[in-house]
Amino acid sequence: MADVDAARRELEEALGTTEVLSDPLALTLYARDAAMVEGGCALVAFPHTVEDVVACMQVAARHALPVVPRGSGTGLAGGATPIGDALVVVTSKMDRILEVRPEDRLAWVEPGVLNLDLANAVAPLGFTYAPDPSSQQTCSIGGNVNTNAGGPHCLAYGVTSSHVLAVDVVLPDGTVERFGSEAPEAPGYDLRGILIGSEGTLGIVVGACVRLTPEPPAVRTMLLDFSAVKDCAATVSSIIAGGVVPAAVEMMDHGIIVAAESFAHAGYPTDAAAVLLVEVDGLPEAVEAQSRAVENAARDHGVRTIRVAADDAERALLWKGRKSAFGAVAQIAPHYHLHDCVVPRSKLVDVLAGVYEIAGRHDIIVTNVFHAGDGNLHPLLSFDRRIPGTLERVLSASEQIVRLCVNNGGSLSGEHGIGLEKRDFMPLMFSEVDLGAQACVRAAFDPEGRMNPHKVLPAGARCGDFAMARGTDAAQAAQSIPEGSWI
Amino acid sequence: MDLIHPMDKLEVAKALRQATADRKRLLVVGGRTHVDKGEPCEVDAELWTTQLDGLVAYEPAEMIAVVEAGMRVGELDRILWDGGQEWPCDAPPRATVGGVIAAAATSPRRLRVGPIRDTVIEMEVVTGDGRLVRSGARTVKSVTGYDLHKLMTGSLGTLGVIVQVALKVRPRPRSRRSVRVAGGLEVGRRLLDAVPGPTAVLAMPEVVELRLEGWPEETERQVEATDRVAPVTVVTEEGAFPFERPWEASAVIAEAAVPPSRLAEFLTRPFHDLPGPHLGSWGALLGVGIAWVGLSSSDGDLEALRTRARALGGIAPVVKGPGGLGNDVPPGLDVHRRLKASFDPAGVLAPGRFWGGI
Predict the structure, then answer these.
(1) B342 interface with A at CB cutoff 8 Å
(2) In this structure, are B10 and B97 located in the same domain?
(3) What is the Cα Rg of chain A in Å?
(4) Residue B6's pLDDT band (boundaries 50, 70, 90)?
(5) Chain B residues within 8 A of A444 when measuring between CB atoms
């Protein structure tokens, strides 16, 4: 058993007593993120500097404590849900934008900087930070790096990995390394690329060098309204097949339209079966040409109306409805469970039909608001878990939705990550050998298996069959989740 | 030198298991166009991937192509052409897809199309001890565990043999123009600021070449914007880019990478400081930070170039001719060594070819 009291004293000495919490309320608050699962932890630390994070790692190493990095806690897969005697390291107080350098189109930020704060800070210089998760008002860059976060505009601009040039990381042994570079290439393997999307299992990100994207000279946002979901989904494939890649193509079905409209009052057509929110950008000439292509594709599939945002205010309003959708669904039921599967675009029509069918069979309300251009579905199951038997039905429907997506050539997660919630689904996509190789990558960074244990890889995945057996038994033991950790 | 010429991925796996058992050191070879990149290393055999050249899947509407790694870039170009798309690596037609990825080769159009690593979304690789491992997914987004394909991209065949990849491809722009103006770095810098959304701004000592892509009306406007900064002397539609690569005449080519704003400092000062008059020509990708520099040999001039690159936060590996990568130590050397030990336990894959003696 780890000596938690000794670890607490050492942390208080290094960080100050106000920056280390161990009272029951704090431990309960930090026992979960935005996912449905709940765990437990022993200590919560709030570092302000890289040195503070190094101290956290050293203390954890001395006392064999698992370490769980946490940003804003908006993750939906349980990636920041601690288990057992964990030390939760919260990076939200490391929230400075250190440098903005337009001539290199980059900025250095601390991990606790919020996504939208960064975008707003660089906007006066004519730049933006392209990845824009719907939680961008609250999610942090550190968390974005760890989940390789996406967002509506990743269709044209790419996910977080394409926008992070370098990361400063504290490794589990307390050493600090910079992976990647301000230069376009760096010596060594692309450890930057491995770290992005690693869900806090390889180290703690203490700084990121992000790429800034020039704001496009012109933007046009359109709302396309359909009387059938399948026509809406088919329009997405048609647009892309026609050789046009809009900046964003978001789809909302009837349930979401109604919920978002009563919250945001964006003027969404509440009698529509589904709408597409399409944004095109570039030079005015390109915006004109892309708009024509989008409108033609929509007409081919029987679009009812096409509303073009007349100005920035209307554009912001159309987006407000989309970005507040997940909050708006609280009107439907008190709890929701959100999925994040990706399917080939050409399968959108079939898979959506399957999702409605599964939800119907389980008597659960499902609504859909998602990144249609990427094929990244977000089926949202709304329910009241105080009603006995409901949660079981939700979990059963969830599993069937995941299997449906993978069976259609899809992936478990597009941008939320695997975390705790989906780790046992990993064998649906990967063989034992594949997962063993992934375990080797993890062990290369964290031979003792203390970084965010239980996450990402299923309990059976081991590096042992590969040459490096060191530390894997201990790591393996740490991967079995204690009884009672789940809700 | 022995040659191993596997016909499919299972034969690759068999060959690697045998090599591991026999402690036989291998160099993985595709089209030989990027084979100079890497430190010199002694091997007992070459493993050629060129028979693994099949098309596995291609659906233009998905913007994803799945190919075996030995497929030639020219062949892939032809396949994608029919779908109105491209994989923008701009490597020589005889280069293999796997070789381009293993070398993390830079496209002259990187400003717009990004690094090659962003286009690889799924990969199958045979490890040094003969395991066939897959990572990623055939979807444009996927966060599912550790992206081994990121690790393999640019690994110069020292962790495994890339046998199959899924590539994110892009629509071929409707209009593609190459433009030339007189000038050098300073004119190039002004063009980078003044021309909206260029695909490439390549500065050379006496000229600047731009690549402009998009809708016809769009490139028209980009040409006009260029002309306002410096009179356009040549415009071609659908032509090659760049028009020529004068640095390729040199015996040695270094591919320097520095923060974009340091390119001018990197390219102008060394020529005054360095001994010897034969630095040859160069081409610099403005806004990207890549410079191809021709050298007459890999002795003193190269070392001076690397010193300068290092001082500016960059590197300068050689991509053609002798000279290797340089002696920069990769950050996280212990992690690198553990990765090598996991994926190539017997050390049969080109030992010593990679950075840090790996």
Answers:
(1) yes
(2) yes
(3) 23
(4) very high
(5) 335, 338-339, 342
